[in-house]
């Protein structure tokens, strides 16, 4: 079977440096050196998030980004959200504040980045039907 690995994706932001620093700080990652018009954050699994500001200043359309994180780092990430005064939620609709979920035997939470992207951290991948 043929495979195709995601290598990078652009994350639109109103302030690419601030957004990259925010997410990297929550996830415990580093912000890379500028690469052309992008501010990269390497997720550690071969995928880079390239934060980018629209040259025409168009509004940012919120997207969803989910990160599979080590179970032993999850509480630290929640603590970073609390320290940054960022509300986290158990659900993607943000109706259960300051709670986590326990889907598929793991733990997960959702939070907004500075531009309203719905970020998710989870310790177990979702079980998908075959």
Describe it.
By secondary structure, this protein is of the alpha/beta class. It is about 20% helix and about 25% strand. The protein is built from 2 helices and 7 strands. The strands form 2 sheets. A 4-stranded mixed sheet has the order 4-7-6-5, with helices on one face. The protein has a 3-stranded mixed sheet with strand order 1-3-2, covered by helices on one side. A hairpin with a 5-residue loop joins strand 2 and strand 3. The mean pLDDT is about 95.
User: Which residues form runs of ≥5 with pLDDT under 50?
Assistant: none
Coarse morphology: globular
Report strand order across the widest sheet.
Answer: 4-7-6-5
Question: What letter string, H or E per element, gives the SSE order?
Answer: EHEEEHEEE
**Integer average pLDDT:** 96
Distance from N terminus to C terminus (CA atoms, Å) equals 15 Å
Rg on CA atoms, Å: 15 Å
Count of DSSP strands: 7
Largest beta-sheet details? 4 strands, mixed
Note the beta-strand portion. 15-25%
User: What structural class do you assign from the helix and strand content?
Assistant: alpha/beta
């Amino acid at each position: 079977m043929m495979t195709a690995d995601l290598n990078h994706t652009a994350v639109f932001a109103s302030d690419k440096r601030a957004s990259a620093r925010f997410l990297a700080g929550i996830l415990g990652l580093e912000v890379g050196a500028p690469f052309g018009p992008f501010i990269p954050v390497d997720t550690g699994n071969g995928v880079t998030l390239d934060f980018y500001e629209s040259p025409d200043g168009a509004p940012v359309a919120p997207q969803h980004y989910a990160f599979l994180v080590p179970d032993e780092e999850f509480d630290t990430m929640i603590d970073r959200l609390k320290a940054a005064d960022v509300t986290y939620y158990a659900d993607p609709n943000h109706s259960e504040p300051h709670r986590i979920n326990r889907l598929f035997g793991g733990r997960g939470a959702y939070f907004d980045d500075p531009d309203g992207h719905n970020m998710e951290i989870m310790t177990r991948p979702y079980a998908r039907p075959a």
